[in-house]
Amino acid sequence: NPTIWHLRKQPEGGFGQIRPLTSAKFASYSPQIRDGRLFLSIGADSTLDVFELPQQGQHPGYPEVEALRQALRDVENFHDRIYLLRRSVEEMRILGNIQASSTAALLELREFVDAGREVEARLCRLKIRNYFREMAATQIEAESLLVKLELKGILFPEQVGTLQPSHRLALDAAEKKLAELAEQSKALNNPSVLGTIILIQAAVLATEKDYFGALDLLSEVEKIVPTTSELAGEALILSALVAEKTQGSDEAISALRRTVSLQKNNFEIVRAASKRAIEVAERTAEPNQLLVNLKDTTKDLPVMPALAHQRIATRYQKDGKRAVAKNEYLLV
Q1: Angstrom distance (rounded) from CA 152 to CA 83
Q2: pTM confidence score
Q3: Who contacts 248 (Cβ-Cβ below 8 Å, separation ≥6)?
């Protein structure tokens, strides 16, 4: 959807800061500033209505990374998340907090990569290259995320179908590029960047069905980053999904349950691990029983039992058992 942006001109000519004023969740048209307020038309549900916003737009963004992360916990819509990330990148730059701005920009790039949105991801990569030219660690991490993007649809655990010769060529190229980036990151002594690269390397090995090689790499991530960090949580989730291949669904779900227990204060990891546990259960011959076990054994954990109740309710509803489904939704 079309969005509205604010471009601040520099005294010497050309444009300086560029900030979004609206999310792409809705189509926005015909912006006008009147008496310090922003008036615009927004298209939704086949209608076109006029809205009034503060001049700074839908939301001013966040000046600190932790505040941004907390806000993202409550935002599910992809376009609203991107708006907050883009806006916060610019707000942090204006305040001179370049390190925080680079972190927010990498979070934005991750959103595009995870969604498989190649055009936006490459535009975001260009922004990172231009904004943070002197920050080697940021550049290396951004480049590694583009490698992951190039393997979208191939990379474990999201791969679809069997590997084709073209896929193997892409994996070989990715392994070579990741090895180069890993060497560069070691010279910087930056565990976070190296951990990101190793995670992708482990996923490549798992794609090639080298599950034990993948587990060895994932154990390295857990050694070099704090145990409560998001990277450590991502490594635990990927280890659990590899365990599904080597030890079965019960071990995978147990590992995901332990991940939630260890990462209770990291909402993004808790949500991701909980969703993965539901997916593992649904890939088994008796998903209903595993989902029931999951909700009964995780009552002391956040999110996971609620998602299990929700999925059970959906299955009951699909089977026409509306009363039982309603009871499950009430328990959520």
Answers
A1: 23
A2: 0.85
A3: none
